[in-house]
Amino acid sequence: MKKFITIGFCIILSHLVLQAQNQANTWYFRYKNGLDFNSGAPVLLNNCPNPVWRTACISDTNGNLLFFEDSRNIYNKSLEIMQGGEGLLGGFDTQQPTVIVPHPGNTNLYYVFTVGSYLAPYGLLYSVVNINMNTGNGSVIEKNVPVANGTWARQKVTAVKHSNNIDWWIITKLHQVNTPQLYASFLLTSSGVNPNPVISPATKLLNASKAGNLKVSHDKKKLISVMVSESTARFGRFDVCNFNASTGEIKHQFSIKEYPESDISFGITGMEMSPDSKLLYITFSPGHIPNDSVNYIFQYDLTKTDSLEFLNSRMIVDTSNYVSDLQLGPDGKIYASSTGFVTQNKFLHVIHDVWKRGSLCNLEQRFLTLENYQNWSTHLPHFPSELLYRFVWQGGPCAKTPFTFRHRFIPEPDSIVWNFGDGATSTDFNPTHVFQAGGNYEVHAHVVYPDGRIEETSREVEVLAAPEPQLPDTLMLCTGESGQLDAGSGFTQYLWMGQFTPGNQYYPVTDTGTYTV
């Protein structure tokens, strides 16, 4: 008598993306400046070839520059315009006109997405860079390719990994004349850009030429969209939205505008989020205060879902600085450029302890003195958040299967204490842990560096419940697990990596199917 046994498994979603390691370690930005983070601390680079505007950069897995671009030209690792790299059509007057995304299916290819502005209405375009590791400097093999249904993209573009951790969402905002403004999430797969975006409603920006940053939190659950200023009063505003990394859908929660009744102009010059996705930093510029050109840094609690609670969570980081743009670095600190009118943009500032509330986050002004500067504001490069994760993991995703964590802390720490959120801890640098039940666990890392600096960071890990047999003759397993099968006499069935053989024994399962016993 034959019996049929159906074997299922949980699909592994690998969170360990080796390609992203060190890929944000080399920065080039206006005005003719750069930073090298490969030693673990930023080292000034003064060989940036041109007074570039707003940039995006990408390095190899060792942290060495592959190329960077300023939405007008693409520069190779030799800091020369790449073959075919001139003439990108990005909005020069735009806060966040470009982002670089690794090709989902080819490690030698990279997408460069650009958007136009109201003064340069190009829409959403992409170019493709081929980094030939044999020749090294690469070339542009496609340039300024219009994305269908992206004609009205303006001012801002960012990218975040799909929940499958393979594909990418390319997110921008559509500003069509006399119509509601919309968010558009275009899916990038190994087959290319899907021209049919996921459309979500967006709040209307009264002065759309002053749109600001657009970023997704590291847990992929929040999207923050900044309006630098709006209307004649030029009050800055930012929207807090929920983001679904599986569907690309964006749901507006609420908008925040500080001092709406004041005659002071509070424009927004910078925005960044902490790596644990809990804190939002916003830089306001009170431009109409007489004899006062300092900026304010406020900090908000991103875990608050009610608008009033969110607004009341605001804490003051500092009100006596010249901070402008904000960008998280590969060392887990937030770097800030200077405003140009008083300091001539000579300095970079830094927030050392980005997970701490209010002034405890330890803002250090004039942390670095730039060698090249002008009386213009500096804008730091833009990166997808995946390139700046503090740690990643692979394995699972079911309970009772191993999760292996890999740290991305630089320089190499003296010690790391992991707390997995289920009562278990580890002092291994790259530990493996088995969660015994499904659920969401906040995995926390306490890091001590050779110079005594301490970093605290965390990420939420979603663990699926371990599958259970649903029928007497059904065995449900996660890939890599072993389960007991009575294979019967003389039967052998080979799989990719495991096998069934006669007898009552445990065997690994690597595929799903129905097998005759």
Number of helices: 2
The oligomerization state is single chain
End-to-end separation: 9 Å
Number of DSSP E strands: 42
Broad structural category: mainly beta
Percent of residues in β-strands: 35-45%
Which spans have pLDDT < 50 for at least 5 consecutive residues? Answer: 1-9, 11-18, 471-517
Keywords:
disordered N terminus, mainly beta, four-stranded antiparallel beta sheet, disordered C terminus, 2% helix, globular, 517 residues
Please specify the SSE layout and strand pairing.
Elements: E1 4-8, E2 26-29, E3 33-36, E4 43-45, E5 56-59, E6 65-69, E7 73-76, E8 81-86, E9 98-102, E10 109-114, E11 125-130, E12 139-146, E13 153-161, E14 168-174, E15 182-189, E16 192-193, E17 198-201, E18 211-216, E19 222-227, E20 237-243, E21 250-256, E22 266-273, E23 279-286, E24 295-301, H1 307-312, E25 315-321, E26 323-328, E27 334-338, H2 340-343, E28 347-351, E29 363-369, E30 391-395, E31 402-407, E32 415-419, E33 425-426, E34 432-434, E35 439-448, E36 454-463, E37 474-476, E38 482-486, E39 493-494, E40 499-500, E41 504-508, E42 513-516
Parallel strand pairs: 1-37
Antiparallel strand pairs: 1-42, 2-3, 3-4, 5-6, 6-7, 7-8, 9-10, 10-11, 11-12, 13-14, 14-15, 15-16, 15-17, 18-19, 19-20, 20-21, 22-23, 23-24, 24-25, 26-27, 27-28, 28-29, 30-31, 31-34, 32-33, 32-35, 35-36, 38-41, 39-40
